[in-house]
Amino acid sequence: MLLVRRSDNGNWALPGGAMDIGETLSETAVRETAEETGIEVVVTGLVGIFTDPRHVILYTSNGEVRQEFSVVYSFADQRGDH
């Protein structure tokens, strides 16, 4: 399992972020993993989609409230390691 330590709150989390216009979910996962870890990966499968109605985030910058979710993929790095 690949985790990153968030710079905003110090918590451990899966690499992730917002999709860019024109990207697929798997392309977003590859790009975000590279941006957040420096590791180039290839998606090899879908582990699952996880959500919890109690996992709600308040963005203090604009007062927006969102219910978060995670799409979790299996992957190999560009060298072929898992």
Question: Can you describe this structure?
Answer:
The structure is a single chain. With 82 residues, the protein is α+β, with helices and mostly antiparallel strands. The protein has one domain (4-77): Nucleoside Triphosphate Pyrophosphohydrolase. 16% of the residues lie in helices and 45% in strands. It contains 1 helix and 4 strands, in the order ββαββ. The strands form 2 sheets. Strands 1-2 form a two-stranded antiparallel ribbon. A two-stranded antiparallel sheet has the order 3-4. β1 (4-5) and β2 (12-13) form a beta hairpin. The relative contact order is 0.20. The mean pLDDT is 89.
Highlighted features:
alpha+beta; Nucleoside Triphosphate Pyrophosphohydrolase; two-stranded antiparallel ribbon
What is the gist of this entry?
By secondary structure, the protein is α+β, with helices and mostly antiparallel strands. The chain is 16% helix and 45% strand.
What is the topology?
Layout: E1 4-5, E2 12-13, H1 25-37, E3 41-59, E4 64-77
Antiparallel strand pairs: 1-2, 3-4
| CATH class assignment | Alpha Beta
- Strand order, sheet with most strands: 1-2
Strand content: over 45%
CATH evolutionary superfamily: Nucleoside Triphosphate Pyrophosphohydrolase
In terms of structural class, how would the helical and strand content be classed?
alpha+beta
Tell me the major beta sheet.
2 strands, antiparallel
Total domains, how many?
A: 1
Question: How does the overall form come out from the CA principal axes?
Answer: globular
